[in-house]
TrEMBL record:
Domain of life (superkingdom): Bacteria
UniProt GO MF annotations: 4 iron, 4 sulfur cluster binding; epoxyqueuosine reductase activity; metal ion binding
Catalytic activity: epoxyqueuosine(34) in tRNA + AH2 = queuosine(34) in tRNA + A + H2O
EC number: 1.17.99.6
Organism listed in the record: Thermodesulfobium acidiphilum
Annotated metabolic or biological route of this protein: tRNA modification; tRNA-queuosine biosynthesis
Keywords: 4Fe-4S, Disulfide bond, Iron, Iron-sulfur, Metal-binding, Oxidoreductase, Queuosine biosynthesis, Redox-active center, tRNA processing
GO BP annotations, alphabetical order: tRNA queuosine(34) biosynthetic process
EC top class named in words: oxidoreductase
Role description: Catalyzes the conversion of epoxyqueuosine (oQ) to queuosine (Q), which is a hypermodified base found in the wobble positions of tRNA(Asp), tRNA(Asn), tRNA(His) and tRNA(Tyr).
UniProt-annotated binding residues for [4Fe-4S] cluster: C8, C9, C81, C84
Disulfide bridge partners, by residue number: C161-C163
The name this protein goes by in its record: Epoxyqueuosine reductase QueH
Family under the similarity heading: Belongs to the QueH family.
Length: 181
């Protein structure tokens, strides 16, 4: 089975690649993340993913379409996270279908900060809409492996999902703890 794997960043990819290989799945990563702000952070994560892909020997399709306007126009405050996930997975499902992949998946479910129920619901809706299979798996048990890999290989690990709102929330928490910003 050939799978297009939406890849949010290098550290998350490093944690799930072994599972895809153990299952005997043929996969290609796909970097599409218009939620990441600022652009320098977007580029930093893209370059880190390139390094992880080099170390772990896997192919990645890079969407250089930093479609911030679509991302900003796509959500209301109460649905910000679910719409953000949906946009990225929908683009992945569309591309997977267009390129003849059998299924699509994501690395997002390795993060303890991402809502698994939202990811699962997006997969189900998009699978039906585009008539393509999906692979949904809770990869959280592999999260510590991704941290170890990143530390061992000097890979940057970000402290927020990527959007400006989550960055703001992260900075507020740091300030409340008395951490240097």
């Amino acid at each position: 089975m050939k799978v297009l794997l939406h890849t949010c960043c290098g550290p998350c990819a490093s944690g799930v690649i072994s599972w895809f290989r153990a299952q005997g799945l043929d996969f290609v990563g796909y970097y599409y993340n218009p939620n990441i702000h600022p652009f320098s952070e977007y580029e930093k994560r893209r370059l880190n993913l390139e390094e992880v892909a080099r170390i772990l020997y896997f192919e990645v399709i890079y969407s250089l379409d930093w479609d911030v306007e679509r991302w900003i126009n796509s959500f209301s405050s109460e649905r910000r996270c679910s719409n953000c996930i949906f946009i990225r997975l929908e683009r992945t499902a569309q591309l997977a279908k267009d390129l003849g992949f059998d299924a699509f998946s994501t690395t997002l479910s390795i993060s303890p900060y991402q809502p698994l129920d939202v990811i699962k619901n997006c997969f189900e809706e998009l699978s039906n809409k585009y008539r393509i299979d999906h692979i949904f798996k809770n990869f959280r048990p592999l999260y510590q492996d991704s941290i170890k890999f990143s530390k061992a290989n000097g890979i940057y690990r970000q402290h927020y999902c990527g959007c400006i709102i989550s960055e703001y929330n992260m900075l507020i928490k740091k300030r409340a703890r008395g951490d240097k910003i």
